[in-house]
Specification:
The structure is a homodimer.
Chain A (H helix, E strand, L loop, with lengths): L8 H13 L2 E2 L2 E2 L6 H16 L2 E5 L5 E5 L5 E7 L12 H15 L8 E7 L10 H6 L5 H6 L8 H7 L15 E9 L4 H5 L3 E7 L1 E10 L3 E2 L11 H19 L5 E10 L5 E2 L2 E10 L2 H21 L3 E6 L7 E2 L2 H14 L4 E6 L4 H5 L5 E6 L15 H24 L2
Parallel strand pairs in A: 5-6, 5-7, 7-17, 8-16
Antiparallel strand pairs in A: 1-2, 3-4, 4-6, 8-15, 8-17, 9-13, 9-14, 10-12, 11-13
């Protein structure tokens, strides 16, 4: 029994490597939600949670939840262990195994042995069936539509997949606000900022909001040899000119963290000899500031209006999916993470937004939430070569454990 | 027996409409080279040529050739009757039926009854198997590679298609320079310049040369949320910026007839959430002036070198197909067409380049060649709705017949 919570690096890395063995492909992992290997991995995690003294269950949607036997207030620590079709071994797995290790570490320390850490492995963050299914179910969102309509790429419905997994009658794990008072999601950065800055820990300030638009340009398809430049209505040329205007407008509004991306362009019909009559571009932009996102959206609409008043080729803005608003991480929880980071790695941590989406953005709407990042080598994620240095993995867990103890100490005082 | 060559508008339009019936799809035509309906149409044309007093043959590659029984010098008049997968009824058919009608008209006129007009219906101008196969075979190009390797979309080889058509042992019709001293190809414009200018006849000055390049941009694929703008190597953004540079450089070099087209853009992997790591654009440019084409090619290479010296995203120029050089139409033949046009339609004709490719560019390398255009309604071609006003069809044939008589009169003097 320690007198302060100490993580066990050997156990931590062993558990991470064992989890990797479920669905390993070279150095990467293929573990799609509710696939046979994913279900096998879920049963293994439930067993490991039981060994850590938690009451473990696999719930109605497939989330593995390990509830501490200690009375609340409880801190929920978790993330997801399902992967993309070509996944990395750490992506969400890191946060789940951190949770397990921290449950061990707090139980092995005299000062924190009564602290309640509930560990969550949310199902389907990656959207094999329906993105953020586990965290959405936990906070009480209506998931009936997903159960009935969501299908994976093979056409298997979510409802059938859960029935085949024997979960049709399992109880749904739901947020207990009286007990579960805060959420911590440790995660790899999935970008290259920490590495570029030479930092070991990122304390997340906000999870950015997202807008996605299809921009359709309609001109006139023509023979590329017989149609003089002066009389063309080239939808592709209009698209290119419009991107230049978007860049100029967004640069006026952006700060260093604002990002925008044209990820796809289609010219129709798409051959050397035909002036495109139709052209589509797919634009995404992200920012941590809701006001800036709205300003960018307004600027885009104004550009389209201005363009249509000036040009024969017309542009139409088509919003794709619903807008995702930014989710601000709880200030007090951020402070605990920062203090723990400064204690473990003085000067080696930084506050930063999360440019990627995480379960914390779902849960953060309901209880105070925070996230801690560790560096991704080369900034690579969603790829078999995704990796993080062992020293960074261990240090990140140490920071998370200290922060968890401090957060719970404060929560217990305020009860 | 007329005392000057007079075309018969009823016979001309009847023949055009009958030819349309082979492969008619609504107002358009689907008559792919060596398809059953194409072969049927070839047999019909051979019979019509025989009725016009020509010695008709379908040769080794499928070209229908009607040789006049008159002694040379001969004028070859023709074009192609094969179509694109969604073809118009006039495209090349117009020039072939003009040839047939002019053979009739000259034979029916006392002053020209001894004049030799050979009528050609070249196979596969559109490249169902191998572009310009008929005219290339006629001028003596090596066609063995095409016979052995060329295949249509169904995977049928050209050699097998010709064998199935019973042509494996047919003789190849070859250019006889001693006899065949000039080539006239009447054609629809396939663009909108005549219509826009309110003109009825185009006298072609040159068939433009063509260059085609794939430009491949190589950057770094990254997560569109977690990769700040400042550290991205976005291949798509580079592509867009480079197109702006191409436009600026080409505008410096262009005249009113120069055209350039970006017909296709591919971003890889092509999704909202990924910064493109690879991007391809497909650029074609055309001009009637060989020097300008070379200058544009040099400018493009210089832009790429300059870009690569300045940017992390690198661009590679990949030449596609062989370069096609411009082919200048014979000045004396152009003059005959202009005089005939002025006689039939005073002030309603114009000299212009051909922005599209034609068999005349193959034959023009070997004997003096010329082309005459009639207007395309709405500038549309390679489409079921392709059409030309009947009055324009008749007037164009009248001009071509007068020009043919004048060309042959001059050729016979110089023998």
């Amino acid at each position: 029994m320690h007198d302060f919570p100490r993580i066990n690096p050997v156990r931590l890395l062993d558990d991470l490597r064992t989890l990797r063995s479920f669905g390993a492909h070279g150095s990467g992992v293929v573990r799609l939600s509710l696939s046979p290997v994913d279900l096998e991995a879920r049963r293994w995690r439930a067993a490991r949670m039981t060994e850590a003294g938690l009451d473990a269950t696999i719930d109605r949607v497939g989330t593995v939840f390990g509830r501490s036997r200690q009375a609340g207030p409880a801190l929920v620590i978790g993330s997801h262990t399902d992967t993309q079709p070509t996944g990395g071994w750490l992506d969400g797995a890191l946060g789940v195994i951190y949770g397990l290790e921290i449950a061990h570490a707090l139980a092995e320390c005299a000062a924190t042995r009564d602290f309640a850490v509930d560990v969550a492995s949310w199902i389907d963050e990656e959207g094999t069936f329906s993105s953020f299914l586990g965290s959405r179910s936990f906070v009480g969102d209506d998931i009936d539509a997903s159960l009935q309509q969501a299908r994976n790429r093979d056409g298997l419905s979510l409802g059938d997949a859960l029935a085949q997994a024997g979960l049709a009658d399992a109880p749904r794990v739901m947020l207990d606000r009286a007990r579960q008072r805060a959420y911590l999601e440790p995660h790899i950065e999935q970008g290259g900022r920490l590495e570029a800055a030479g930092k070991a820990i990122g304390v997340v300030t906000t999870i950015v909001g997202i807008r996605e638009f299809q921009l359709r340009f309609t001109g006139q398809r023509n023979h590329a040899g017989t149609t003089p430049m002066a009389i063309r209505r080239d939808a592709g040329a209009a698209l290119v000119a419009f991107i230049t205007r978007i860049d100029a407008a967004f640069q006026q509004l952006a700060d260093a963290d604002t990002v925008w991306t044209v990820g796809r362009i289609d010219l129709d019909p798409g051959s050397f000899s035909v002036v495109p009559g139709k052209a589509d571009l797919y634009l995404q932009f992200r920012d941590g500031n809701a006001g800036r996102l709205h300003a960018m959206e307004s600027a885009l609409a104004a550009l389209a209006d201005e363009w249509n008043a000036q040009h024969a080729v017309q542009v139409e803005l088509i919003a794709c999916d619903g807008p995702e608003e930014p989710v601000v991480m709880d200030a007090s929880l951020q402070q605990h993470l920062a203090q723990a980071a400064e204690a473990v790695a003085p000067g080696q941590w930084v506050s930063m937004p999360s440019g990627a989406s995480h379960d914390a953005q779902v849960i953060g709407h309901h209880i105070p939430a925070c996230m801690l990042f560790v560096p991704s080598i080369g900034g690579v994620s969603h790829d078999f070569i995704e990796d993080t240095a062992e020293a960074d993995i261990v240090r990140g867990c140490d920071v998370a454990a200290r922060a968890a103890a401090a957060i719970l100490a404060q929560l217990r005082q305020s009860v």
